[in-house]
From TrEMBL:
Protein's name according to its UniProt entry: Glutamine synthetase family protein
SMART domains recorded: Gln-synt_C (SM01230)
Pfam families in UniProt: Gln-synt_C
GO aspect biological process, one term: polyamine catabolic process
Keywords: Ligase, Magnesium
MF terms (GO), sorted A to Z: glutamine synthetase activity
Family: Belongs to the glutamine synthetase family.
Domain GS catalytic: 119-453
InterPro entries for the chain: Gln_synt_N_sf (IPR036651), Gln_synth/guanido_kin_cat_dom (IPR014746), Gln_synth_cat_dom (IPR008146), Gln_synth_gly_rich_site (IPR027303)
The organism's place on the tree of life at top rank: Bacteria
Cofactors required: Mg(2+)
Amino acid sequence: MSDDWTTQIPAAAQAYLENRRLDEVECIISDLPGIARGKAVPASKFARQQFFHLPNSIFFQTITGDWGEAAGDEGFIEPDMTLRPDLSTTSAAPWTGDWTLQVIHDAYDRKGNPIPFSPRNVLKRVVSLYEAQGWKPVVAPEMEFYLIARNLDPAKPILPMTGRSGRPAAARQAYSMTAVDEFGPVIDDIYDFAEAQGFEIDGITQEGGAGQLEINLRHGNPVKLADEVFYFKRLIREAALRHDCFATFMAKPIGDEPGSAMHIHHSILDLETGRNIFTGPQGGETDAFYSFIGGLQHHLPQVIPLLAPYVNSYRRYVKDHAAPINLEWGRDNRTTGIRVPISDPAARRVENRVAGMDCNPYLGIAASLAAGYLGLMREERAEKQFRGDAYEGEGDFPRTLGEALNEMEEATGIAEVLGEEFLRVYSIVKRTEYEEFLGVISPWEREHLLLNV
C-alpha cells in the first residue's frame, strides 16, 4: 500500500478525513453469520501492508462462538487466509472516539484463489455467472429491524424501547409519522452516520411492529449493496446504543409482533444495451421475467437455510403477520412470497419476500440470485399468477432449520451455482448450531410438560 492510499478511497471517506489525522483502520471481513471479523491497525501500519492473515476457521464458527467440526481431508488445522483490502469499500466509523476508517477485505488461499466459503466471494461468484451470460443483476434490499429496550437477561422477554414521549413504542402503527418521531434521536444518528459513510437512504418508515422500522436502499450492484447492508447493521446498532436502547435484526424478536425481513428486489439488465431483460420492446413481460420467477419458485426451497439461517427465523413465517408462508407470486400482492411491485416497464422487478433480516446479506442476496439464475438458464416457467390472499393456501417451503438443511443438502443445481465447498462448510456450521439449540430446554417445555405429561 502506498502512503497516499487515501487518494484511492471513496469521496465520502476522503471528506470524513478532511483536515483530520487518520488514527486507525479496521480491516474487516464478514463471517458466515455476518459478524465483522478482522483486526484494527494503526493507520501508519495499514499504509505499509498489502494484506494480512486470519485463520480460515472464522468461517467454521457458529453464532454462539462454538466451532463446526471437520474442515476437510486434512482435518481442522486452521490454515491462514490472505486478506486483501478492497479500497472501494473504505468507509468512516463515525461512532468511534478517534478518526477511524473501515475497509472490507477479500479472502484468498495460499495459491491466490478466492476462499470458496467466504460470503463475499460466494456473492461475487454468482454475479460473475450472470456477467458471463451478458447480464447485469441489480438489487435493492429493504431492511427491517426493531429498536428495543436494553435486554440484559436472556430469560426475560424482549420489550419495545421507550420513545421520546416516555411511553413504550406502540404496535400496529405502520407508516405513522408520529411513531417515527418517537425514535427521532436514534434516526437522526442513523442519518448522520450513513451520510458520513457515503450511504444513500431511500427512506425510513415505521413498520407494523412495536418499535419496528424499515430502511430502503437505492438499487445497485449486488456486492456493493450487500457491503452496505453489512455496514448498516453495525451503524444502526451503534446509533441505538447512543440512546440507551438496542437494535435487533432477529427475524422474530417479539412473539406476537411481525417479524423482520430483508426483502430483495431484483432486475436484470443486458450488459450491452443496458435494457431490463424483464421487459420487451413494446413494454410487455418477457420469457426471462417468467423464468426468473420460476427459478425462485423452484429453487428458493433449496436455499432457505441461507435466507432463514437460525431456528428463530422460522417463527417469522406465520399467516397474516406480514411474512409469506409459500412461494406463490402475484402483482402488487404482499401476501405472496414473490411479489411484482407496480412500476414502469423499464423498472420492472421481482421482489423476494422470504429472506429474513437475520440472514447474512451476501448470502441472502447470493441465494436469491442463484435461484433466479437457474430459472433463466433452464428456462423454467413460473406457476400461474396467484390472485387473492396467499395466506389461504398451504405452505410450500421448509418450516424448520433441520428440514431446510436436508433439502439444501439434497439439491444439485444450486450447489453448482453457489459452490459445493461453500455449501459443505455452511451445512457443517448450521448443523452444529441446530444441535446446540436442541440441547436447550425452553421455558415452554418446562411450563407445559414438567407436570402434565
